[in-house]
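Fold Annotation — chain and its backbone
Next Lines — sequence and tokenised fold

***
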Amino acid sequence: MNATTHAIALHDIRKAFGATVAVDGASFAIDRGSVHALLGENGAGKSTVVKLLSGLMLPDSGKITIDGAEARLDSARAAHRHGIQTAFQEMTLARDLTVLENILLSHAPVNALGLVEWGKAKARVAAHFDALGLTDIDLRDEIRDLDLAVKQKIEIARALYRDPKILLLDEPTSSLSGRDVDWLGEIIARERDRGVTVVFISHRLHEVRAFCDHMTVLRNGQHIATARVSEVPDAEVIKMIVGRSIGQAFPPKPAEKRAHGNVVLSARDVTAGRARNITFDLHAGEILGIAGLQGMGQLSLFLSCFGMAEIEKGHIEVDGHPVVMTTPADAISAAIGISMMPEDRKTEALFLKLSGKHNASIPVISRFSRMGLIDGKKETEAVSEVFRRVEVDERALWTRAGAFSGGNQQKIALAKWLLAESRALLLYDPTRGIDVGTKHEIYQLMRSFAEAGGAVLFYSTEIPELVHLADRVLVLYQGAIVDQVEDDRLDEETIVQATLGGHAPSIAGQAA
């Protein structure tokens, strides 16, 4: 490795957590002023590398060099001194503080008395947000009240506010869609033009090709390859990532259009939150896609179907009969049988300190209880069977959910609803931030669930997923359904144009 051209170089880095080796003798380098992708399955070592470079942990052995000189990154402040800033996927924003206060943490201008100069600080941050095109974000808003996509943009804006020489973007587009992804692409190009080195962690290959110059693939903590992005075809990249060919990325749809079963779930003129006058039918055996740019009412729609959002007008029907759901417990009940996988698995789908078994069994724990006592053997047998179906390691039965990779956490969350024997699954961006191999497994599970007579309402920020998995797609714009895309019209361009109100498709809608 030629140290004179490298912003970062890892030399035989090893990092283990007990018996688990997260990074196993990895060596690779990243050129100055380049946009470098870091690819790999969940658990391949990417997040550990990001934490090592961010100063959140030290390697057990090996060394890291910055601009050719060995660096000891033993704290976040040490990383900052080397010009390293990170925007994390699992965001580090303080939810009870305002946007302004989060941006200024440890970087607020102070006077001679050590007091924050709030007027000057607000002006600086407002100018920064204006330069980034984030004029629609109110600096007075508390983080807790904002959508996930808005939080992700603030996380990115905070890292940029600190004027990095090296910018680490850990799955920055996992909660972004449409024009937000284009916005990030423009930011990355601008930073590269300024000479900033950008490390881009993503599972979306079309974004890697659009934004990045080089890529490094990790597998099982080991360095597999580093190459120019333009030199390696997608099939070869996927093979390097998962260690095998996975054939088709998506399971094939039936050769002939199938007649779906009875209507399981319906919305009738539903107005809730940002959703306006929504009407649809979801049939047994059907995967019904929902498309829309961030904030177009899709989240309100899903929450209203799961008893988590107040319905202002209209109603929900199950099996053709109106139902009232005031809590998720109502939706999960045997009489209704609706379950939902939310967008943020760590805060909404799982109890990270509980075992995978307990996470899976909680919604239906009464099934394993008698006279206030839980039949542990019966519970373990049932959960073990569903974990085998979703291909989660047996140790999830006794290991806390937080110890697993994002992909395995998502499969535990899905196993929970398979155990509940739900009739309808509401899947809200279920492949967010997971690797191509795990995505493939979730696609197969979705298709199997539908073919067995289950009903799936499916929202995704990745348009190709909707095209290849859904039987038809409803497009939301400004809270209302503006198009139903099916049959010969079911393609990426048609969906993207509908989400944009007829504009040309963007990079976010291109094929992976």
Notes: The chain has three domains: 3-242, 263-337+422-509, 351-421. The domain at 263-337+422-509 is CATH 3.40.50.300 (Rossmann fold). Residues 212 and 283 are 42 Å apart (CA to CA).
